[in-house]
């Protein structure tokens, strides 16, 4: 008999210096630094550099990296024109997947799979992902595309391109923290998919398009959007306990609750919960937060002993909602953050590459013979 690791759970296939997760104790670190410290002290730009280089930058290096990101924000004009023609009914993840693939056509370095080439493409993708998502959202809503500004931070510039209004420093910082929390998370489904593609020595754009396809699924990036659907279904805080109790009694899945790795609170959810509470109270948008608070209490009381707790998707949607972002863009924003982790993992793996080729236990017939069509 052969043991099968369903979902590849517990299977080790490579080494990495980037991210460490201890799901039992609810620990997440990048380069050995706890995620809470990254969220409190760092920026998405700095974490992106750290992931790509597997070390912290000095001041001059960070300034240059930031300048390079800003200089690469603009999209080719032909791509901007193409985005404007995308069907408005298409899911934003479909348009993102198509736009990134289209972007490769304009990059003369697209087929460069050397470490230097992959790094250069990674930097451009990190810079341009936000522009693609904001442009797609604007055209989908029938609004003119807003060009990027070079004087704003990565987070502030995205919110500006998305809404047409410069965000407050607090709004920009809150969104920056959300990006930091989502930038990398070990060998999740989309990162593994990117690495699997890269292991064939395919180009970086193909790796990222593959990752976007994996992230699109509701069991991965789409979960935060599903959480907001759940909150709308609950309606008011006084109905939350009964609603979730019923789901638990029927053994139905609760979106934003439970995680393949974490058997305790997802540390990212603890950071976002505090910010969600702060924003909700300040902006007078406490309904969503109150519902989530009741759901979390009910879940912890009923099934916390089984190692099932809220994950990062549980609170991220309310943070985005309070920033004025519509729920159909939550998953693309996940990609906006995770692009750093995808690129860093691809670059790391391909430096000591081995083609991924798992196997399966065959359970079909062993002694069958072909039957001619007229005899069937």
From TrEMBL:
The active site is at residues 259, 313. One of its GO terms (molecular function) is citrate synthase activity. Pathway: Carbohydrate metabolism; tricarboxylic acid cycle. Pfam families: Citrate_synt. One of its GO terms (cellular component) is cytosol. Signal peptide: none annotated. InterPro entries: 2-MeCitrate/Citrate_synth_II, Citrate_synth-like_lrg_a-sub, Citrate_synth-like_sm_a-sub, Citrate_synthase, Citrate_synthase_AS, Citrate_synthase_bac-typ, Citrate_synthase_sf. Transmembrane segments: none annotated. It catalyses: oxaloacetate + acetyl-CoA + H2O = citrate + CoA + H(+). Keywords: Acyltransferase, Transferase, Tricarboxylic acid cycle. Coiled coil: none annotated. Belongs to the citrate synthase family. This is Citrate synthase. It comes from Deinococcus puniceus. The lineage of its organism: Bacteria, Thermotogati, Deinococcota, Deinococci, Deinococcales.
């Amino acid at each position: 008999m052969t043991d099968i690791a369903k979902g590849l759970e517990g299977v080790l296939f490579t080494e990495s210096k980037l991210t460490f997760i201890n799901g039992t104790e609810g620990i997440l670190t990048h380069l050995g630094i706890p995620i809470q410290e990254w969220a409190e002290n760092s920026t998405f730009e700095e974490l992106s550099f750290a992931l790509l280089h597997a070390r912290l930058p000095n001041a001059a290096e960070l300034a240059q990296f930031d300048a390079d990101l800003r200089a690469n924000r603009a999209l080719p004009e032909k791509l901007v024109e193409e985005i404007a023609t995308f069907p408005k009914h298409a899911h934003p993840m479909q348009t993102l997947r198509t736009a990134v693939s289209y972007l490769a056509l304009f990059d003369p370095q697209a087929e460069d799979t050397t470490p230097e080439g992959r790094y250069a493409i990674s930097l451009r993708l990190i810079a341009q992902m936000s522009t693609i998502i904001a442009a797609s959202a604007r055209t989908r809503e029938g609004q003119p595309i807003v060009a990027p500004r070079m004087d704003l931070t990565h987070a502030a510039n995205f919110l500006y391109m998305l809404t047409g209004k410069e965000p407050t420093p607090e709004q920009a910082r809150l969104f920056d923290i959300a990006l930091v929390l989502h930038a990398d998370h070990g060998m999740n489904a989309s990162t593994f998919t990117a690495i699997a593609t890269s292991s064939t020595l395919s180009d970086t754009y193909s790796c990222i398009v593959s990752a976007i396809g994996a992230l699109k699924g509701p069991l991965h990036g789409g979960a935060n959007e599903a959480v907001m659907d759940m909150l709308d279904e609950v309606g008011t805080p006084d109905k939350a306990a009964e609603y979730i109790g019923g789901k638990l009694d029927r053994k139905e899945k609760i979106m934003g609750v439970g995680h393949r790795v974490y058997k305790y609170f997802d540390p990212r959810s603890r950071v976002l919960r505090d910010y969600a509470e702060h924003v909700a109270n300040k902006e007078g948008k406490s309904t969503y937060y109150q519902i989530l608070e009741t759901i979390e209490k009910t879940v912890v009381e009923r099934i916390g002993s089984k190692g099932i707790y809220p994950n990062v998707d549980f609170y991220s949607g309310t943070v985005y909602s309070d920033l004025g972002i519509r729920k159909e863009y939550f998953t693309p924003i996940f990609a906006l953050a995770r692009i750093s982790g995808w690129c860093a993992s691809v670059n790391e793996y391909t430096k000591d590459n081995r083609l991924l080729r798992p196997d399966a236990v065959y359970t079909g017939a062993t002694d069958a013979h072909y039957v001619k069509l007229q005899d069937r």
